[in-house]
Design brief:
184 residues, alpha+beta, two-stranded antiparallel sheet, 6 helices
Length: 184
Amino acid sequence: MILDFARDKGYIYFVPKLKKPKKPYTDKEESIIFIESDRQNIWLDCFEKENTDISLLFETMLLTGLRPEEACGLKWCAIKEDTNELSINNAYKDSPIYNEEYKVIGHTRGDGRLKTPESYRTIPLNDRLKRRLLEHKEKQQKLFKTYKKKWNEKEYMFLNQYRNPFVPENLSGNMKKFIEKYNL
């Protein structure tokens, strides 16, 4: 990250490829947290009851398996209504800004590349999710008219109270509140 910063600021001209150290082997099993299949409909019903951008973002992640930065980066042009598919080709990221002493002095937020080349993909769109997204699209278009803001297909699907995309790093706090509210 520091080398990328230095390249972007013109301090160096290229970033050498570095070998990452291997993770040490541990014999402990990592516990994987997931929502059991027989409880997924309970979660989906709670997301629909909440009916907010953040709950629809969580619902989308549950039904598609998207990473947080992929879900936060979804734009309306990603929906292919004729084929019932969702094109994953964008990530929304929060990147720190460093000064000359490599201290974080701020953050920049915006579109970024996906994690791997294989991350660029098209996935099937669940009928339930498609219906919910199209309803949300109409709601968002009306909201933009209320604020006299022009809406287009390149708008982000999920917006916070300031009408900005959600930041992946902030999702866990919102999920915790949601879990507590619905006793999940």
